[in-house]
Design a protein that fits this description.
The structure holds 2 protein chains of 2 kinds. Chain A is built from 15 helices and 18 strands. In chain A, strand 10 and strand 11 form a beta hairpin. Chain A is elongated. The longest helix of chain B is centred in the first third of the chain and has 22 residues. Chain B has a two-stranded antiparallel sheet with strand order 2-3. Chain B has a domain of 38 residues: Histone, subunit A (Orthogonal Bundle). In chain B, helix 1 packs across helix 2. By secondary structure, chain B is mainly alpha-helical. Chain B is flat and about 55 Å long. Classes of the chains: A alpha+beta, B mainly alpha. Chains A and B meet through strand 2, helix 1, strand 10, strand 11 and strand 18 of A and strand 1, helix 3 and strand 3 of B. Strand 11 of chain A pairs antiparallel with strand 3 of chain B. Chain A: Pfam families: GatB_N, GatB_Yqey. Chain A: It catalyses: L-glutamyl-tRNA(Gln) + L-glutamine + ATP + H2O = L-glutaminyl-tRNA(Gln) + L-glutamate + ADP + phosphate + H(+); L-aspartyl-tRNA(Asn) + L-glutamine + ATP + H2O = L-asparaginyl-tRNA(Asn) + L-glutamate + ADP + phosphate + 2 H(+). Chain A: It is an enzyme of class 6 (ligase). Chain A: Its EC number is 6.3.5.-. Chain A: Keywords: ATP-binding, Ligase, Nucleotide-binding, Protein biosynthesis, Transferase.
């Protein structure tokens, strides 16, 4: 009998603000421990929280971007638990009335598209960090991160495989970085995923779930879910019941292990925070945020296909990030043919960036410079193959395409007489190939084209060589 | 509703309050008195009334997003029981 996998995600995105959600301390990453804390963050008695306007605005942006309801009134609540990196003894979060409700995003696995509904997104503060090195049998606490604004984004349990869960996490990552509410840096913990996994027989009620905490890479997420699903199925098939639990994934062993079971599961005793009256968001504010929202990936993809005549695949590839889409449009604006620009960017440029494990923001060849190269391919100054060599040199030296073509004498030989002379030379020196071709071996023709290109040091126009060669052999 | 001794112990544990065996029944009696008052409130018909999270009808004040707080680590840590390398030291956290 088959099993159905049910997955829901809770993603903590760190909102990119200058200051904390309830204090004026800096949120910059990597500072000396405890140098970025204010009285609110270390919970000195009597210190009162004051809400950061930009954190609210970023939550509104997210709500609008995913077509969710932005609540005109939402409420902050205290989530009570004791842990040394949470000095107040409670985390300020939202419970009954979150700032954002509903919404959906589209994911893609293979050729399948699927809409994943979101339950809610709420504002809350981050906790500090425990340093588990041994300080004479004690732990160290750094409260720099305490009070960093988070938007916790909760999905419905609508994913049915590890691949779908990863596709959802990636799509969400793409949206939050696209609209600029989160830097998306997973190593620094700006985008942290908790994954709820359960299995059931198709059609039956939901199984008991276990929650994998704090996954900070898509690769680990996929490994963790696959391991967990197999583990749960084996447990049930062996006659055991799944106990609700919080678990961690260990990348070294590739296994999940229990962090705490339901026995000591938290009873958070939420209640409205008396320090913070309801958050009220006006229609005007929402209208302004809506008007300032950038064009979103799906809309841009459709426009690229239509405006530039690109395939859906290319349009989707180019809109994978806002930076990449911007690079493409700047290349076209600088005079490159859109289809050629698309081919070069998704081809040679992307391949080189991949090799160097970089993204488009680190590309040493500016969009205008790439357009300069493409224009030379368009006007037949160089052929495609030479173009690739020129790009490589542009990449290394930072010189313009024209400079390199001129300096290295790479200009394509378009003079029919000169090309003809080269072809005559090749035909005379390769009688055997000529005979083969004439006896019906088509392959010999390509070999002859190759010889001609070689004899021209790559500078002949391949189309022209083809044409003249055909005429001479025909 | 009426709290049992076990409920009292659980609530005390969640709040990290030490309630001795001798105190449990007295604390339970007091808590049940409070719950009695809440029961009276809950008996009121609030159909169609918007839930109230705060007694005062005011909206949350918002501040501009500027990082102006100075580094006051030295002053803050002067009153901490134990610090090292800029970190607050606490009893070992076991996970």
């Amino acid at each position: 009998m088959t099993w159905e996998v049910v997955i829901g995600l809770e993603v903590h995105t760190q909102l990119s603000t200058q200051s904390k959600i309830f204090s004026a301390a800096s949120t910059a990453f990597g500072a000396e421990p405890n140098t970025q804390t204010a009285v609110v963050d270390i919970a000195l008695p009597g210190a009162l929280p004051v809400m950061n306007k930009v954190a609210v605005e970023k939550a509104i942006q997210f709500g609008l971007a995913i077509g969710a309801k932005v609540n005109r009134k939402s409420v902050f609540a205290r989530k009570n638990y004791f842990y040394p990196d949470l000095p107040k003894g409670y985390q300020i979060s939202q419970f009954e009335l979150p700032v954002v409700e509903g919404g959906a995003i589209t994911i893609r696995v293979g050729d399948e598209e699927k809409r994943i509904n979101l339950t809610r997104a709420h504002l809350e503060e981050d906790a500090g960090k425990s340093v588990h090195e041994d300080f004479h049998g004690m732990s160290g606490i750094d409260l720099n991160r305490a009070g960093t604004p988070l938007l916790e984004i909760v999905s419905e349990p609508e994913m049915r495989s590890a691949a779908e869960a990863v596709a959802y996490a990636k799509a969400l990552h793409s949206i939050v970085t696209w609209i600029g509410i989160c830097d998306g840096n997973m190593q620094e913990g700006s985008f942290r995923c908790d994954v709820n996994v359960s299995v059931r027989r198709p059609g039956e009620p939901l199984g008991t779930r276990r929650e994998i905490k704090n996954l900070n890479s898509f690769k680990f997420m996929e490994q963790a879910i696959k391991y967990e699903v197999n583990w749960q199925i084996e447990q049930i098939e062996d006659g055991h019941k799944i106990q609700q639990a919080t678990i961690l994934f260990d990348p070294d062993s590739g296994e999940t292990r229990m962090m705490r079971s339901k026995e000591d599961a938290h009873d958070y005793r939420y209640f409205p925070d008396p320090d913070l009256p309801p958050l009220v968001i006006s229609e005007d504010w929402i209208a302004r945020v809506r008007s300032e929202l950038p064009e979103l990936p799906e809309a841009m993809q459709a426009r690229f296909a239509q405006q530039y005549g690109l395939s859906d695949y290319d349009a989707r590839t180019l809109t994978a990030s806002k930076a990449l889409a911007g690079y493409f449009e700047a290349t076209v604006a600088a005079g490159a043919d859109a289809k050629l620009a698309s081919n070069w960017i998704t081809g040679e440029v992307a391949a080189t960036l991949n090799r160097e494990e970089q993204d488009i923001t680190a590309c040493p060849v500016a969009a205008e410079a790439l357009a300069g190269l493409i224009r030379r391919v368009m006007d037949n100054t160089i052929n495609n193959k030479t173009g690739k060599d020129v790009l490589k040199k542009m990449w290394e030296s930072g010189d313009a395409a024209d400079t390199i073509i001129e300096r290295d004498g790479l200009k394509q030989e378009n003079d029919a007489g000169a090309v003809e002379a080269i072809i005559d030379g090749v035909l005379a020196a390769n009688q055997a190939m000529v005979d083969e071709y004439k006896s019906g071996k088509e392959k010999a023709f390509n070999a002859l084209v190759g010889q001609c290109m070689k004899a021209s040091k790559g500078k002949a126009n391949p189309a022209q060589v083809n044409e003249i060669l055909k005429r001479k052999l025909g | 509703m009426s709290l049992t001794d076990a409920d009292v112990r659980r609530i005390a544990r969640l709040a990290r309050l030490r309630v001795s065996d001798a105190e449990v029944s007295e604390v339970g009696r007091q808590l049940n008195g409070i719950f009695g008052l809440i029961e009276q409130l809950q008996a009121i018909d609030t159909d169609g009334v918007e839930p109230m999270s705060h007694a005062r009808d005011v909206a949350l004040r918002l501040r501009e997003d500027v990082a102006t707080a100075p580094n006051r680590r030295e002053a803050f840590q002067a009153i901490a029981p134990a610090v090292e390398n800029g970190l607050y030291l606490v009893p070992k956290v076991i996970e």
